[in-house]
Amino acid sequence: xxxxxxxxxxxxxxxxxxxxxxxxxxxxxMFTMDYDPENGWHNAxxxxxxxxxxxxxxxxxxxxxxxxxGTKAYKTPDGHVQLFRPQENFARLNRSAKRLCxxxxxxxxxxxxxxxxxxxxxxxxxxxxxxxLYIRPFIFATENYIGVHVSSTYKFxxxxxxxxxxxxxxxxxxxxxxxQVYARTVAGGTGEAKCGGNYAGSLAATExxxxxxxxxxxxxxxxxxxNIEEVGSCNIMFKIxxxxxxxxxxxxxxxxxxxxxxxQLLKSWGETVEERVLPIQxxxxxxxxxxxxxxxxxxxxxxxxxxxxxxYAGEDMVFNNDEIGPSAQKIYxxxxxxxxxxxxxxxxxxxxx
Length: 353
Ligand code: COI
Description:
The protein has 353 residues and is α+β, with helices and mostly antiparallel strands. It folds into 2 domains: 4-163, Aminotransferase class 4, branched-chain amino acid transferase, N-terminal domain (D-amino Acid Aminotransferase, Chain A, domain 1, 2-Layer Sandwich), CATH 3.30.470; 174-340, D-amino Acid Aminotransferase, Chain A, domain 2 (Alpha-Beta Barrel), CATH 3.20.10. It has 7 helices and 18 strands. It has helices spanning 59-63, 86-99, 107-120, 196-211, 257-268, 280-288, 326-340; strands at 4-5, 29-36, 40-48, 66-68, 71-75, 81-84, 132-141, 154-163, 174-178, 216-220, 228-231, 235-240, 243-247, 273-276, 292-299, 303-312, 315-318, 350-352. The strands form 2 sheets. Strands 1, 2, 3, 4, 5, 6, 7, 8 and 18 form a 9-stranded mixed sheet that branches. Strands 9, 10, 11, 12, 13, 14, 15, 16 and 17 form a 9-stranded mixed sheet that branches. Helix 2 (86-99) packs across helix 3. The longest helix has 16 residues, at 196-211. The two termini are 19 Å apart. 2-OXO-4-methylpentanoic acid (COI) is lined by residues 70, 199, 233-234, 299-302.
C-alpha cells in the first residue's frame, strides 16, 4: 500500500531541549490509516498533525475499545536516526488488538510507515542527554453505535513527541505507594494488553498516591493483593542479595520490551535474573534483613527509573540510601548508549531508519 503525503502549510518551532516535558509537545506530522470490513486497512496517509473529527457515538468514547504502544527514535552522534526494537512494539500492538477484538495491522507495513514518518520528522529528534523522540502508535474503534459490541471500523495513528524524562526529576529516585485497596487487573482480564482502559482504571489509585506525596502506584495482584506486579507506567526490578528479581509474566502484567531487554542485558553480564512470583511479605522480610540492594522501574517512557522509597501499609522501605544504585546506573548507561548509538549493540536491537 502506498502512503499518501499531505504537506503542512507551516511548520512549528522546535522546542528548547533543555527542559523538555514528557508527552506535551507534538511534531508537525502524523501517520493515519482507516479500517472498514470492505477495504481492510487502507487510506495510509502522512498528514499535518492536528485535531480529528469523530461522531460523539463513536465506540471508543463509550466502551474504550482502544490499544496503544510506546517506542522511541534516537539520533546517533554522527546524525543517523535509529529505532529500538520497533518490531516488538508492533507485535505487541497486534497481541493487544486481538484481546480487544481489533483487526490486526500488517506489522511490516506499520514499521515502514513509522520509518517514513520519523525520516520526515528527523529534525524533531532531540539530542540533549536524557531526551528522545517518543512514538505513540494507537488504534481505536470508530463505529457510530452505542450498543456494546465489536466496532466494524477503526483508525490507526502514529504521533510523535520530543521528550525528556518521564518522571520530572530524571534519575532522582522516585517514591511509590503500594496499593492495597484498588486492583489494576485480575487473571483473564486485560492486564497484559496495552489498552487505555487499564490505565483509566488505575487513575484513582494514582491520584490518591499523588495526594499523599507519592509519584506512582506499585500494583499488587488483583486476586490476593499479596504479590508484586507492576508500577502504573512501567515494570519493576529488585536486586535482592545479589540477584535480580522481577515479577513473572502471568497474564496480568504488561510484557515490557524494556523489561525483556534489561533481563537479556543482565544475563549477558552473567547476572542471575529470576522471573517469578514475588510476595510483598518476602520483600518486607528481605528489606528488614537488609538484603534489598536496589529497586528500579523499567519502561520505554520511564527507561530505568530508580525507586528510592516504597510505602506499604504505612511503612517506608528506603533503598540504597534513596540514591540511584550502581546496577541501575550501569543498566541505564548501557541501554541508553545502545539506543543512542554510543555503545555497541551486540543484540541487534537497533533498527536504522
Ligand atoms: C511507555 O513506557 O511507553 C508507556 O506506554 C507507558 C505509558 C503509560 C507512559
